[in-house]
Amino acid sequence: MRIVIIGAGHMGGWLAREFSKEHEVAIYDIDQQKYAS
Fold it and tell me: Where are the domains of the chain?
């Protein structure tokens, strides 16, 4: 399943890490430094 998460704050970052274990995840946030790693 493909999942898009808007916002890479505490909850968005956690959701992205959890979902990416089994799904394809795209994440977007205004501050690109939050998800650059």
Answer: 1-36
